[in-house]
């Protein structure tokens, strides 16, 4: 496997940092105006793209503002440190994103996308890992994500695989709906009493489950009413249906 080459994102670090700060959302809304004012003090036209020297001058002005205890200075200082942290960590052109614990297919993100994400989540939730990888820690009980550097060729192959998987998932979904809809009541998400069988895609399989809508007692139709068994029988000709353990209650969700 080819090594992933280190690629510094387009533009200098100061230019990139300034672009990221100008796109950032602040709880203190006037900080966007503070940044624009610093840009206007350096550039004759604030809509021009600053060069490296000009971006460094803007950075100096913002650093002074953040250090002087002025309104919003603490938030601006945090944002500038988060952006610097992102620029220090994201050094490759493409990354492979993998959920931990594993969930779904891996995806590919560009350096620009990962820079924005790392800066947004903040330094406390982003860790450097071996080989130039990054880990973005989950909030609460969610899944963390590992971003591993890959080459441009690897990124292209991953995108093609993801596109193929998505197309196959669409075919699986359409096939399951085609088989089931003539025989069972399908869920209608737009109605309070639209309970029925819902078909969705879970990773590389089709998820068939009962959606009770606002009628929780309708759940009995899934198990005791035999609809789950009927769905399994109808789909077994086209999909691989897990047998399950007859000694234990079936889960409400049936993955096929």
Automatic annotation (TrEMBL):
Keyword annotations for this protein, in alphabetical order, are: Plasmid
User: Which top-level group of life is the source organism from?
Assistant: Bacteria
Give the protein's recorded name.
Uncharacterized protein
| Naturally occurring in which organism (per UniProt) | Streptomyces sp. F2
């Amino acid at each position: 496997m080819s090594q992933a080459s280190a690629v510094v994102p387009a533009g200098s670090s100061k230019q990139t940092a300034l672009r990221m700060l100008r796109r950032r959302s602040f709880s203190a809304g006037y900080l966007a105006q503070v940044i624009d004012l610093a840009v206007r003090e350096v550039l004759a036209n604030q809509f021009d793209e600053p060069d490296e020297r000009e971006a460094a001058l803007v950075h100096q002005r913002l650093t002074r503002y953040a250090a002087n205890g002025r309104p919003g200075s603490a938030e601006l200082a945090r944002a500038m440190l988060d952006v610097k942290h992102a620029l220090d960590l994201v050094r490759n052109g493409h990354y492979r994103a993998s959920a931990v614990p594993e969930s779904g297919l891996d995806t590919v993100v560009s350096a620009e996308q990962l820079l924005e994400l790392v800066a947004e989540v903040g330094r406390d939730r982003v860790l450097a890992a071996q080989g130039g990888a990054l880990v973005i820690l989950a909030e609460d009980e969610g899944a963390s994500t590992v971003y591993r550097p890959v080459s441009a060729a690897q990124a292209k192959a991953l995108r093609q695989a993801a596109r193929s998987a998505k197309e196959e998932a669409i075919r699986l979904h359409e096939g399951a709906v085609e088989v089931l809809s003539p025989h069972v009541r399908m869920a209608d998400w737009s109605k309070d009493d639209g309970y029925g069988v819902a078909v969705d895609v879970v990773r590389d399989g089709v998820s068939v489950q009962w959606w009770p809508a606002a009628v929780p007692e309708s759940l009995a139709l899934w198990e005791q009413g035999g609809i789950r068994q009927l769905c399994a029988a109808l789909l077994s000709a086209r999909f691989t249906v897990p047998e399950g353990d007859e000694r234990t209650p079936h889960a409400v969700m049936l993955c096929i």
